């Protein structure tokens, strides 16, 4: 909650204005019962045939019936107007705060290392940016407004009650303090359940996101029942924690109401005795009973608001866990750039581990000359993709260094390093939009003509023209209204349009048929000409023309050479290659 308060630092003038409005509204509303009581006393005087003038505040103010009624209406109107003003101000403050929080979350996600996303489900992170921020927006506006108004009202009423009659005020004060104490105990009890409920909601979003994104796989493997059981388990947890938190919050109000009712009964009985003995006027006791009722409502509101703030705290905890996560180091001061990228890449005793103590890359070295096509092969888990991730600085090496044209990539900003590479991954990424927009992703400055040229070069143009609206054909989320192979062709077209000095192809043709693969291979050869290219492939037939092949096993390069040289060595590569033809 302290961190949440830091988001309000620029809004303190408006918060103070809202607080002043609440205090004045509270003070004004407390005068309404006085004037209403004076009006009742005036009616009593008139009934007895006396003057309707009533003396208030020790003779400081003398009012007739119509004056009392007018002032009662005016004080009620002022109180309502100021309550509206402070509500308006606080809504604006909280909406600006949550707007800034969303911006900060979006900026933070762009600075987080990929290793952070290895620990959390995407649905859980999405829940923090949507559900938790919305919870703060809704609960904070309501709670701050109520707490300001309620504390001002309680303080004002108690002060006036003590001024008017201290013995009756003591009864009301005891009720107030007991109610606040009860509220504090209930809030503390419900806090852990609100925290658990927020976490469970994140788990639910993560589960739903996974199941819906992989609904085809779920159905193919008949996993529906198991997925439903997981859903029910999370749903049960949400029900249990939400029920407990809401039940505890719910019973707080009737418990508080019980204590305020006791005070109401005590004041009514004692006040009735004083009226009967002539010590008090009936209008006075009406005023006091109204105050007793008035002080009960803000006390209950404070308890309810404190309970609602537990939801705010639980959501804020999840948001600040993300915002306080360690970002990638700031590299704005790194100015090293390559004026002309030749593509000379060196790996010097590179070491890396995802988990400390478990090395994935165990100290390999390689020297890739400008313009070479480098194929990286090896069994699953050998470190092929990890090698490329290190080159792109998606992860940082734990030992050794990687240089491009003699410059350590750590001396350049990540954006600078990545601007040298075009990349096509095995997992295609398509967003909702036209085919042209998808191909132009990252190359917005390119013309429609250049988009078509890139598509032709990638053997994509023919299938695009067969679709309704051609390049303006609208792809849905993940491009599920076209085939996997067609999605792969679009991502290859995207890399061709980017026209970067170096290329990384990670199983780029894994989802296309043999005929299309041959066509793409021809286009790739044309694209890679004169450029340094890194090709990760499992089908060894696709990398026969590579200038050099790195054979990886257990995080090291164990063999290197061209296709014919490696076959002549009759080593691990030859074994991998020949295994393709074994029955």
UniProtKB/TrEMBL annotation:
Belongs to the ABC transporter superfamily. InterPro entries: AAA+_ATPase, ABC1_TM_dom, ABC1_TM_sf, ABC_transporter-like_ATP-bd, ABC_transporter-like_CS, P-loop_NTPase, Type_1_exporter. Residues 16-311 form the ABC transmembrane type-1 domain. CDD domains: ABC_6TM_Tm288_like, ABCC_Glucan_exporter_like. The chain crosses the membrane at residues 12-43, 63-91, 147-164, 170-187. It comes from Acholeplasma hippikon. One of its GO terms (cellular component) is plasma membrane. Its EC number is 3.6.3.-. Residues 345-579 form the ABC transporter domain. This is ABC-type multidrug/protein/lipid transport system ATPase component. It comes from the Bacteria. GO terms for molecular function: ABC-type oligopeptide transporter activity; ATP binding; ATP hydrolysis activity.
């Amino acid at each position: 909650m302290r961190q949440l308060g830091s988001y309000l630092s620029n809004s303190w003038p408006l918060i103070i204005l809202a607080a002043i409005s609440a205090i004045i509204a509270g003070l004004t509303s407390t005068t309404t019962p006085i004037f209403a009581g004076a009006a009742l006393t005036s009616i009593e005087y008139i009934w007895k045939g006396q003057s309707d003038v009533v003396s208030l505040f020790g003779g400081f103010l003398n009012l007739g019936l119509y004056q009392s009624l007018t002032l009662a209406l005016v004080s009620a109107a002022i109180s309502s107007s100021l309550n509206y003003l402070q509500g308006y101000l606080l809504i604006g403050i909280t909406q600006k705060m949550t707007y800034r929080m969303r911006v900060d979350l979006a900026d933070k996600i762009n600075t987080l290392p990929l290793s952070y996303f290895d620990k959390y489900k995407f649905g859980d992170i999405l829940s923090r940016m949507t559900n938790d921020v919305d919870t703060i927006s809704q609960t904070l506006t309501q709670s701050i407004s109520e707490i300001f108004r309620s504390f001002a009202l309680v303080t004002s009423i108690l002060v006036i009650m003590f001024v008017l009659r201290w013995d009756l005020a003591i009864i009301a004060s005891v009720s107030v303090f007991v109610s606040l104490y009860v509220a504090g105990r209930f809030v503390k009890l419900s806090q852990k359940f609100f925290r658990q409920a927020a976490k469970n909601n994140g788990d639910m979003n993560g589960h739903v996101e996974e199941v819906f994104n992989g609904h085809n796989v779920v159905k193919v493997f008949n996993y529906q029942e198991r997925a439903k059981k997981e859903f029910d388990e999370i749903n049960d947890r949400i029900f249990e924690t939400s029920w407990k938190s809401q039940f505890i919050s719910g019973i707080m109000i009737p418990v508080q109401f019980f204590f305020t009712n006791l005070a109401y009964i005590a004041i009514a009985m004692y006040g009735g005795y004083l009226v009967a003995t002539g010590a008090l006027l009936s209008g006075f006791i009406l005023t006091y009973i109204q105050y007793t009722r008035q002080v009960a409502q803000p006390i209950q509101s404070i308890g309810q608001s404190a309970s609602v703030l537990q939801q705010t705290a639980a959501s804020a905890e999840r948001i600040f866990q993300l915002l306080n996560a360690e970002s990638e180091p700031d590299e704005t001061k790194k100015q090293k750039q390559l004026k002309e990228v030749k593509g000379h890449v060196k790996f010097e005793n590179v070491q890396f581990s995802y988990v400390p103590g478990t090395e994935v890359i165990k100290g390999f070295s390689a020297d890739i000359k400008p313009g070479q096509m480098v194929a990286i092969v090896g069994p699953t888990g050998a470190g092929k993709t990890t090698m490329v991730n290190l080159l792109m600085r998606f992860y940082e090496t734990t030992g050794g260094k990687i240089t491009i044209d003699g410059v350590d990539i750590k001396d350049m900003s990540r954006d600078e390093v990545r601007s040298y590479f075009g990349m096509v991954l095995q997992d295609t990424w398509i967003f909702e939009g036209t085919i042209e927009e998808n191909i132009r992703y990252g190359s917005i400055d390119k013309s429609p003509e250049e988009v078509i040229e890139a598509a032709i070069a990638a053997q994509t143009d023919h299938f695009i023209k067969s679709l309704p609206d051609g390049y303006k054909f609208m792809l849905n989320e993940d491009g599920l209204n076209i085939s996997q192979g067609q999605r792969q062709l679009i991502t290859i077209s995207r890399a061709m349009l980017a026209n970067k000095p170096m290329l990384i192809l990670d199983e780029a043709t894994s989802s296309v048929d043999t005929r299309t693969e041959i066509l793409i291979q021809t286009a790739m050869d044309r694209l890679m000409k004169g450029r340094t290219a890194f090709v990760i492939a499992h089908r060894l037939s696709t990398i026969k023309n590579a200038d050099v092949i790195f054979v990886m096993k257990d995080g090291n390069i164990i063999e290197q050479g061209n296709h014919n040289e490696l076959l002549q060595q009759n080593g691990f590569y030859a074994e991998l290659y020949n295994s393709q033809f074994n029955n």
